[in-house]
Amino acid sequence: MIGDFNIRDSLWNTLFPHHSSIINDLLIIANSFNLTLLSLTNPCPTRYSDTEGVSNSVIDLMFLQYGSDETDHHSIHLEWHLTLDYAPLTISVPIMDEVVNTSRLSIQQNSKQEVTFVEEVTSIFKNLDTSSISDKPHLENTVNHLNVLINQAWNRHAKQSRTTKHSKQWWNEDCNKSLNEYRTTRSLENWKRFKKVVKTPRDHFST
After folding, report:
1. pLDDT per residue as tens digits for the range 34-71
2. Which residue has the higher pLDDT, 59 or 207?
3. Is 119 exposed, middle or buried (0-12, 13-18, 19+ CB in 10 A)?
4. Residue 1 pLDDT greater than 80, yes or no
5. What's the pTM value of the predicted model, to 2 decimals?
6. What is the pLDDT of residues 107-150, one digit of tens each?
7. Where are the domains of the chain?
């Protein structure tokens, strides 16, 4: 919560001798949103008056999340106000580095790999020995063994694919083959064939 609150108070300006009763209400409202008034790294006025006899004041405030050790103070940039009445307020918000995976294991829809994978998983279920399941621990062991077998089948047939903003979930091997044919010949006929091949899986995915 940041802005010009137009309130002069000794709480944030030690040169101002008075405390306003409405400050308590402001702090209560901020606290209801889990916000707290930030401390200043360089206490100085935020508004600069051009009127003779009117002193500079601190009326711009910044409230942030309560209890945050990383964002518990802000700065007033006196040198940036230039011809403006107000000096800018800034705060540095740390952003943690995040690793974003750009590749993943996948099996293309309607591909030979998908058919083989489904066949293997079906076979795993058919041949699963359930005769020893007599209690909860035996059931958990069987389920864990089943999970291992399915993961092994997946890893055998899945391929590493790079995820980009152009990636399409409906793209299959037929689309890839048709596109390569067009790129090889650059013929209008192959282009029309490619558009037709692409249309079916794309329409199916969108519905």
Report:
1. 888 887 777 888 888 877 777 888 888 888 877 776 66
2. 59
3. exposed
4. yes
5. 0.41
6. 887 889 999 999 999 999 999 888 888 899 899 999 999 999 99
7. 2-90, 105-161, 163-207
